[in-house]
Amino acid sequence: MRSRLLLLALALLMTAGCGSGAGSSSGSSSAPPGGKLVVFAASSLIDAFPKIASTYQHQHPGWNVDFEFLGSDQLAAQIEQGDAADVFAAASTKYPEQLQSQTLLGRTTNFATNTLVLATPADNPAGITSVNDIGNAKLVVGDPSVPIGAYTLTVLDNLGIKASSLNIVSQEAKVTDIVTKLELGEADAGFIYTSDAKTAGDKLKTFQLPAAAQATAIYPIGIVTGSKNAKAAQQWIDLVISPQGQRVLASDGFGPAPSS
């Protein structure tokens, strides 16, 4: 009888030991998970978002933010084609609404605004002094299908200028390409975002537009439907719209989100 009791006690001890080991393993796996958060973002965010990503990765150890910076229309097309992404941040409400109509994007939040300026190469070869001087200048602009191009057409319309009357030598798929062409001196002038002008610094010369001619870009952000990292994606959005994220955007020349 005593031997049977000793064997039973030994079995109970072994079972408890296994349970303890399982608990230890579970505790290890409950550590904050890591992964890759894929953010599709308008090319005008190419400087601001990586700065915010540094904070995000510090706040969420083990997570890395992987960016795709292109024109908003190109990013929307990639999502429509099934490319994997967790977050979509655009420079216009047009393409997020297009994706939402196909249930490819969830609810969006407007997180920033932007305005346009006229920019020239630093040496200003055409001697431009204001937007009134663009009539004979070689211009590089955004393609009408992308937000910067659409906003440019709005500015020209507000100024009473027909695009067909201008010497447009190039139409680009993203604003960063306009900036590059101006920096290389491949055009006399072009319309870019205030944020891009601030990033370019003394590489470009910029001219403010009349207030009545200005177009305001609105930036929405949302979680791509089917994201396997929805919680991490929401944490990214929360950081972008937080005071900390907004300070980064403001320092890069973006305006605050439009009031609802």
In short:
With 260 residues, the chain is an alpha/beta fold.
Characterize the structure shown.
This protein has 260 residues and is an alpha/beta fold. Helices cover 41% and strands 24% of the residues. The chain contains 9 helices and 10 strands. The protein has helices at 2-29, 48-59, 72-80, 94-100, 147-159, 175-183, 194-200, 230-241, 243-251, and strands at 35-42, 63-70, 87-89, 105-114, 116-121, 138-142, 167-172, 189-193, 204-207, 217-224. The strands form 2 sheets. The chain has a 5-stranded mixed sheet with strand order 2-1-3-10-4. Strands 7-6-8-5-9 form a 5-stranded mixed sheet, with helices on both faces. Strand 6 (138-142), helix 5 (147-159) and strand 7 form a beta-alpha-beta unit. It is elongated and about 55 Å long.
Unreliable segments of 5+ consecutive residues: 1-32
| DSSP helical segment count | 9
- N-to-C order of helices and strands: HEHEHEHEEEHEHEHEEHH
Percent strand: 15-25%
Main sheet, how many strands, which sense, barrel?
5 strands, mixed
**Average of per-residue pLDDT values:** 89
Protein structure class: alpha/beta
Q: Radius of gyration over alpha carbons? A: 26 Å
Q: Ends: how far apart?
A: 80 Å
- Strand order, main sheet: write it out: 2-1-3-10-4
**What portion of residues is helical?**
40-55%
- Which term fits the overall shape? elongated
